[in-house]
Amino acid sequence: MKxxxxxxxxSNCDRDCKVALERTVGAQVxxxxxxxxxxxxxxxxxxxxxxxxxxxxxxxxxxxxxSPVTAAVVAAxxxxxxxxxxxxxxxxxxxxxxxxxxxxxxxxxxxxCHPVELEIANPHTRFTRAYAPGARPVxxxxxxxGNYFADAGTLDxxxxxxxxxxxxxxxxxxxxxxxxxxxxESGTVLGMMPHPDRAFxxxxxxxxxxxxxxxxxxxx
Amino acid sequence: xxxxxxxxxxKSGVLDPQGRAVADALQGLGYAEALDxxxxxxxxxDLDETDPARARARASEMAARLLANPVIESFEVEVV
Lengths: 220, 80
What we know:
The complex is a heterodimer of chains A (220) and B (80).
Chain A: E1 2-7, H1 14-25, E2 28-33, E3 45-48, H2 68-78, E4 83-86, H3 88-95, E5 102-104, E6 112-120, E7 138-143, E8 147-149, H4 152-160, E9 164-168, E10 179-183, E11 189-192, H5 210-219
Parallel strand pairs in A: 1-2, 1-3, 3-4, 4-11
Antiparallel strand pairs in A: 5-8, 6-7, 6-9, 9-10, 10-11
Helix pairs in contact in A: 1-5
Chain B: E1 2-10, H1 17-28, E2 41-47, H2 52-67, E3 73-79
Antiparallel strand pairs in B: 1-2, 1-3
């Protein structure tokens, strides 16, 4: 599997994502700086990592969505290359409109950093197919703006089309309908607030996130 | 040069926990009449432009494309 991890100024999970992909599925991973205008050829996956791209100026992900490399990511996504956005990466995907909705300030205002138990709302996506039926994976969250918001019509459509992929067991941040992760209509772009890249080895407290990468390997 | 002021605020149906905390703090200071608060932002733009109508149109375009996120925010442009 050949993957690219995008590095914006202020990204801080780029290396985590690279190491997670290398150790879980032996992927060949390149880090791509935000000023690049093109991506490596033949990619099986693009990852937008967590962090605080551009210092979260204006809105989380707003500046990154205008970054030169993001135009290449959007073009690749529209051509069908799978994209995984984690945490800040999810925020960027919403700002580019590759995914619907937006991520608001947490309901309780506080930055939250702790493990969460997730329900897999759709186990048939290219990002979740390696999970055992009924799995309740535990991963950590680390965000101040993870409160998923979309209008009721969009939420109904997401649920009706199986685009809600992960839900929180206990909603930490006020997200509408407990949403922790969604895919686009074609199922190729996933955004999620919990970090599979911080849950790929028992030494990290959980290796439940590695199934996300294994699912992608099976799909590649 | 023309200065345009873009006011960005959360749409009415969007929860504003920061505004809620501000209202609670004001009540704590004894302002019992402060039932609610909504926190927005103001972005001042210095535009290399002489025509106020064009300045307003361009600032509105900037607001729609970057300064506000239409999913959650609304905006108003003021030319000063």
